[in-house]
Amino acid sequence: MNLLKIYENILATNGKRIAWNELLSPDVKIKVITLVSNKSPKLLRQLIEPISNIFDLHESSIRPHIRKFLKTLAREDSKENEFFYLSDYFKIYDALDINTHGLFILKKKSVRGESFKTIEFFDSIDMETKVEMVSFFDGLIPRAKLPCDYNKEFVEKLNRLEKKYHKYPYLSDISRSIELKNVLKLIRNVVKTYDIDVALIQNTSIYDIMFRMEFSYYTYRNTRAKRGVDATINFYESVIAEFNENPFAFLSFVKFLSEKPDGDKITIYTICLDPKLDKILFDGDEQYYRRTVNRMEELKRTFFEELQVNKNLKELYNRIRNENKITNEHLMPRLKIFRQISVYVVETINHFNKALEWLQNAKMIAVDTEFSTDSICGKLHLCQVAVMNGVILFDAVKIPTHNLCWKKLMNLLIVNPLCPVLFFDFKNDFRILGTILNDEEKRNLDTPNNRVIDIQFLYSNSIKEPTFRHYLEGECAEPIDTKSLFQITRNVLNIDIDKQLQCAAWKMRPLRNELLEYAAIDAYILILIYNKIKSVIQDDELFSKLEGVIDVASYYKLPSEQVEGSVDETKKIKGGSVKKVTLTDIINFIKNDPDVSTYTNSPKQFTFYVDSMILNMQPVLLNLGFNIFTNVQQKCKIERNQDVIILSVGKTVANWRSQNRYNKIIDIKYDHTLQEKVLSIFKELKVALDESLIVPKCSKCYSDSIVVVNRKFVLLLSYEDFKEDPEYTKQVTRIGKIDEVTILNDLMEDIGDCKINPDEGIYYAKEYKINYKLKHVMFYPDEHWRALPDKRQLFLRAFHNINDFMLCRNCNSWSSHHTL
């Protein structure tokens, strides 16, 4: 390195540099790159910068030669690390064709445990290349298959690609390395991040639609006996709304229904409601069409007979045919709530401008939103704005949010409000309303003048005041320490609001009056709650402190998918964001040390006692194949006949040494990262990394008879118990900003191959099923239920953790799971 610095200093003078460059041919430069790439990864990173400066490797004429060299490097076995590093260093991402590079990226992210949120170099390539790579990823997703066949078909596709790209050793096992759920996650995040047209990822869109429709179907089957016509109308609205945006997904839905007892009836009723799907089915699956032609005619007759006697079905049938009709040219009341409050629906730009005029003079405003939580194209469908004497429903389907009038509305509601603006769980609404503003507008949010008030936050503060708490204790129908709008409304106003329509098909147009009424009440009720709390407190100065004006700008500073209070929020430690370390990170860190590959000792030769100050190392060492000893009878003393290595830290090391003359003691450095601590043990004991020993194990009984449980499901499972325990609720100051609906929505977006039936309260996974209402689990192939372990702090552990959880079959206990 010193010699390289000398060369750099000599060549810093112009005369020397010119003479030197005349000696450098492309062949010489490529020879230099070849020699450097043969060094260890650690040395390569040290050498590449000075070598590039000396041999002028950043010069544009050499780039085609580097590109050719990278292509050769990609075909060499065990050279993938050098390929990725040099590609990133020289910012050359087209050495391989786009499909091959795409597979390299997927394999790298899978084996290294990297985030699937985005592709790091996407900012350096043009939009055309971005689209081409995302389209290739989308092509990996199976199409028009039953949900249960998706994984099988995905693996078959990757097997075919392994054969096609056999000349690249790195791609030899992609069918075992790459998971469908991770490819889907990558596609969704890249499309949202770079605003890529959703129409270009048809397979992914169909996959997501099928997932939602399967859920809707089973919900319909389980609730129609109890809710009757309402369940039927809700289901068909969901079906029509989904396939109106992506009619070709209807073919997959028909295949799914073909195995269900009422499948043909649902298919034909859907076609009768939306005739354009008839041609889609005929063109896409003519065989099905011909096979069921007689049954279809019979069911069509049944549908139109039922249409004459079922007024709700008739209303839906007529409403679908008036999809694009504007109800009123002028902004007129559509209906009333609470008998006297008029509800207006804004469907045109003229309506919108008129409504903005009305809001200019408002003394108080309340806001709510209805939006889809689709993993790709989730967007605003309705924005409800209530004032003292009416409610205005802004239709974001009829008037898309890219229109300038929406920014004017955001100015009144968020950017520069002229009066108090009420929300409920503001962060949830801002997550969708904030997308209307561009980055510059978000950065310029005028926080000091902000008058946004979160009713959920106001209620949480008010229940600490004796006057208001005394009022609730006399009136309360629900627990006082509640966080849901339904329960707060019941407690404060003694009014029951219907929340069954919360997950209705809000993208359907026109919306039926029941949905308009539901949406209007959700907004207007905030004004009633605010006024009631204020009248009970009867102290303006105290009440102004309880309101707690919201720092809107703070919501923008957080990443778009990690808004404060969301289940996946970034944890703040000492003022900075800290990414928690996974077992995969530790394994890769150890692999990158060139010395470890030369060691011969096996982890199973060693048994550790881990001191209490560094207990976070215990599950890591256990999963890496080491043995763990815990039976210590006296403080800082282990029996002489125990062949145990003691791991300790700081001043406690001296105590262990004074009482354990016959045991090896390793002093772990307190200021090292977890990766560095583990690596120091490998180097101290000359241990080789044996991947055959790396198996997730229970941290209690050390058994590997475990099942992995989605962390977001653990949050759902433990939320109710946690919420009802005030002692533990106090431990998380922002826990009130999370509700069961938010947790369930987050879970539905990342549920993978599992299924959930909210009505039965059962979560279905490959190796088990859990009744989260009764807190029981059934492990397959057993046919009996057993009680889940009672863990009072389970919610807190899941809330502060980024990993999934393990449930041990052997000792029936929970422990954190480090993704391998």
TrEMBL record:
One of its GO terms (molecular function) is 3'-5' exonuclease activity. It holds the Pfam family DNA_pol_A_exo1. One of its GO terms (biological process) is nucleobase-containing compound metabolic process. This is 3'-5' exonuclease domain-containing protein. InterPro entries: 3'-5'_exonuclease_dom, Exonuclease_MUT-7-like, RNaseH-like_sf, RNaseH_sf. Residues 343-538 form the 3'-5' exonuclease domain.
